[in-house]
Design a protein that fits this description.
438 residues, alpha/beta, five-stranded mixed beta sheet, 16 strands
Length: 438
Amino acid sequence: IDFNFYSGDIYADLKKWNPAVIGIGGTTGTRKGSFKLAEICKEALPKTPVVFGGIHATFTAEDTLKHVPEIDYVLKGEGEFSFLSFVEIFIEKKKGNLFNIPGLSYRHDNQIIHNKPVRIDDLDTLPLPARELCEGNYKIKLDYLGIEAEFLMTSRGCPFACDFCAASRMFPGGIRYRSIDNVKKEIDLILSQKKVKALKIFDSTFTASRQHVLNFCEMIKPYNLLWECEIRVDTVDFELMKKMKEAGCCYVDIGLETTDSKILQSIYKTINVKQVEDVLSWCRKLQIKTKVFFTFGHLGQSYQSCLNDANYIKQNKDKIDFFATTVGIRVYPGTQLEKKAIAAGIIPTDFSWVKFKPSPWRHLLFEFEDQLLLTQKHLGFYRLSKIVWKLVMNGTVGSFNYICELIFINLYKLIRQLFLNIKQAGYQLKRASQKGNL
């Protein structure tokens, strides 16, 4: 079930379907919804095991099992084969010990036991994504160009370790690639099911391997598809970018984050501004659109450093097609940033992702999600909000209309959530009445 589109009574449907196992996925931003769903599942089917997995679950298994009694098991890391083993043992009664499954965390004798995850070395052993199960509800478009697209991943992991990202820890041991033949099979399957003209490649760093990129370009060129990917400026040169353009690459995402060399070093972003400017110059020459990520409020970053970055954006707005800015760094579990913030006393040592409630002051940054934002004594919500408005007034990030649209969209989300809560309360009252517990 994709809850972006589901509008039924999940309690009634669970009763009707009576599943033998319930698996719940989720991210840090959607974790509270996952916990609420687990609560409903246990209310409907008290004896059915609930398994929680995904990147958030991987780094918060102890916290989740300690504070969310409705979740019975957590599967850490790459869960495809581990969850399959769980299903085979639990439902099909195949031989095997449930508690030896790699990556499984569970409660036992008032303790929480954690099994070490095992990475999937050969990605070709995984089946192709079953997009037909999504019933065509989701729509993906290329950023900036607005062309209907489909998603694709050709690798897992990242060879780099930026302190705000958990990709290298979620997929440890270096980057792994699918074979080009396997990627081709997926593209053929996509085109047999949908009429799309573009692909969004979601690899953490698509250009980490030059040979992989060249092999992909040779394979994809005859399809005449446009595609977008995320690159690192220290992994490309003009000749490689030219090959990518000839094969259909029309848009690249680049993470600069900041122009402050000391901050770049402290967040383990081993690049420099000149490298970024060189790549931007190549992209303009090759007519490849560019999106550049800037993040404001890094640990130890000064207010003046943030202002310098805002001025840099203003001075270079004619060289970049789209600025992706985040004011107020989001802290995610499993990242080096989380560890640093705890060591610095910004996050308490007994911090719980389950119990955390975001500050209402985050709305000053137009941040409406349930996220932990890094704030420091010298760089709190007020000063960060001044940076937001400086970017808006400079005309480099959005406009007044954009801000109004953003507020409207999030007000709609809040109102929709309110009605869903009222609807859910109605279901609970009805069930309580039926049970005589009203």
